[in-house]
């Protein structure tokens, strides 16, 4: 009995000492971050930070964490969350039904079909089996661009149009070695070897490629049912009829690539097109009509109803400046992901410091990555939210949002990295 009592007191003492040490570390970190954020560097911009220990449930530091910020591509964290809730392990590629010798099909928003990063042809191989193909292209019921997107970006690779049946990533890929190469070849006669201020005309599919250009150019093409039909016919090598609505009957679903492969590209390369199409895909599991807003509304009303600060969430990519999120709401999503997704999978989906993509040149540790996080950049804005691994073996969750600065983004990143390194080495 005496031995048991002594052991209990010893354990309690160790827990108290550990708690005191942890509390001391928290105070040191809080003081250090506070001093840095109060420096003249941050005085003319708007900064919000929250740092959380998911094991102890303690908020170690917070500053403007309940204020709304323009999140840029931090929006993709919410898109990832929605996708994990709405989509199965493999991507729904087509919905279809067969009557007699005809297959009737419609798209789900799957962005992988003949995309340069995946070159998936699951739908093509499947459709080729049928003598007659009838396609419904009009099940997407939103604008081709998201609310608040910059109109002048129409010719840039990161701003393809949204639709129900993407093909080739909804971009024309142009490059030159011995001769000019255009993918898809359907647009070959629409490419002029000229130097122009824009890569494409604003209202038609006429493209421009500077003859001396050495790198590959990707230019979004204008979507319409005729172009999609003819592109599909080109790869199928057979005629496709267009129908105004699907016939009555129970539809089946064809699946393509693994969902994680889309999530990783969205997060690592900050791929806006895939982010947008993931929300369209999500709506295909809720309804026969496709809209990204349907996915957003469903997640906010069913999964995130109790968020302390409800976001203004308007697109999947974060291209829109209409999006408004607080560091606390982003941290809430990150914490849910941390609690429900196996760590190996979660950390493979998030970009890691010093690795490829948007984090390649930043936040790299000596013995390996110590940050797994999503960055977000727009003019005068830079945000980073994710997971930080400390030298003591702790995992912390953070959201660090910077809006309205006039200094170079590199200088903002340098100061953020210094803060993260202090946290890593101290906690």
TrEMBL record:
It comes from Saonia flava. This is D-alanyl-D-alanine carboxypeptidase/D-alanyl-D-alanine-endopeptidase (Penicillin-binding protein 4). Belongs to the peptidase S13 family. Pfam families: Peptidase_S13. GO terms for biological process: peptidoglycan metabolic process; proteolysis. Transmembrane segments: none annotated. InterPro entries: Beta-lactam/transpept-like, Peptidase_S13. It comes from the Bacteria. Its EC number is 3.4.16.4, 3.4.21.-. Keywords: Carboxypeptidase, Hydrolase, Protease. GO terms for molecular function: serine-type D-Ala-D-Ala carboxypeptidase activity.
């Amino acid at each position: 009995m005496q031995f048991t009592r002594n052991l209990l007191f010893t354990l309690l003492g160790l827990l108290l000492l550990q708690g005191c040490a942890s509390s001391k570390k928290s105070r040191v970190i809080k003081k250090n971050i506070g001093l840095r954020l109060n420096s003249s560097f941050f005085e003319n911009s708007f900064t919000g930070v929250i740092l959380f220990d998911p094991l102890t449930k303690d908020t170690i530091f917070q500053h403007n964490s309940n204020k709304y910020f323009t999140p840029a591509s931090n929006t993709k964290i919410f898109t990832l969350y929605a996708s994990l809730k709405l989509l199965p392990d493999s991507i729904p590629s087509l919905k279809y039904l067969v009557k007699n010798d005809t297959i009737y099909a419609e798209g789900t928003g799957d962005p992988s079909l003949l995309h340069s990063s995946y070159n998936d042809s699951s739908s093509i191989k499947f459709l080729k089996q049928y003598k007659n193909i009838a396609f419904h292209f009009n099940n997407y019921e939103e604008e081709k661009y998201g609310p608040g997107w910059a109109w002048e970006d129409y010719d840039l690779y990161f701003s393809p149009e949204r639709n129900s049946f993407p093909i080739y990533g909804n971009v024309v890929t142009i490059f030159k070695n011995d001769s000019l190469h255009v993918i898809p070849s359907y647009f070959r006669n629409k490419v002029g070897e000229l130097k122009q201020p824009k890569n494409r005309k604003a209202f038609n599919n006429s493209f421009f490629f500077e003859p001396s250009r050495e790198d590959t150019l990707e230019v979004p093409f204008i979507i319409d049912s005729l172009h999609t039909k003819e592109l599909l016919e080109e790869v199928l090598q057979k005629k496709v009829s267009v129908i105004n609505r699907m016939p009555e009957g129970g539809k089946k679903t064809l699946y393509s690539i693994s969902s994680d492969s889309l999530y990783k590209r969205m997060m690592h390369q900050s791929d806006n097109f895939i982010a947008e199409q993931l929300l369209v895909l999500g709506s295909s599991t809720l309804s026969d009509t496709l809209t990204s807003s349907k996915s957003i509304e469903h997640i906010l009303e069913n999964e995130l109803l109790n968020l302390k600060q409800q976001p203004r969430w308007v697109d999947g990519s974060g291209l829109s400046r209409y999006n408004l999120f607080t560091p606390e709401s982003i941290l809430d999503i990150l914490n849910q992901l941390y609690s429900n997704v196996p760590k190996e999978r979660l950390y493979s989906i998030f970009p890691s410091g010093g690795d490829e993509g948007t984090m390649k040149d930043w936040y790299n540790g000596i013995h390996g990555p110590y940050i797994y996080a999503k960055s977000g950049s727009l003019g005068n804005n830079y945000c980073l939210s994710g997971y930080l691994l400390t030298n003591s073996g702790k995992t912390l969750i953070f959201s660090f949002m910077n809006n309205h600065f006039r200094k170079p983004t590199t200088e903002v990143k340098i100061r953020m990295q210094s803060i993260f390194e202090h946290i890593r080495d101290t906690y």
